[in-house]
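Why does residue order matter? Because the sequence determines the fold. Keep that principle in mind as you read this record.
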Amino acid sequence: MQSRNIHSRNDQTAHRINNRITARTVRVVGDDMEPQIMSIQEAMKLADEKELDLVEISPNSDPPVCKIIDYQKFLYQQKKKQKELKAKATKIVVKEIRFGPNTDEHDYNFKLKHAIKFLEEGAKVRAYVFFKGRSILFSEQGEVLLLKFANDLEEYGKVEQLPKLEGKRMFLTVTPKKKK
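Structure:
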């Protein structure tokens, strides 16, 4: 068992190969052969004849499944698959836009243009009105501002979360619309 632990530190995949396979009988598969069940000695001999490695790819099945393949090539293909999966995973970016309860028209339009750009790039926009001191009394004004903001962004994104007051901030979240 200790040889397996040493092996797993050297390799992230931790597959047992060749003489590290502990099962007595295995199901052997390969690119140019029919799957068959044989003893570990026969499987090792077959792998040696082809000058390839015997790699345990499914140790929990009964009997364990081993593949006759070049181990380095196998590792390379696995890394390649992992990279492809990682590349396909979508990364969600959230951009924040801050307003005051008394934001004037020019600042509002400037921030609206930025929000449109962010949504077109595929990022979520989280707009919030920050209330300082006694300005919390104007929370209705902040809500009206955020609703106007959501209405102006209607053709670029959809509202994920309506204005909600949390402490001294009122938030609104807008997600980009799916491109057709």
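The chain has two domains: 2-84, 94-176.
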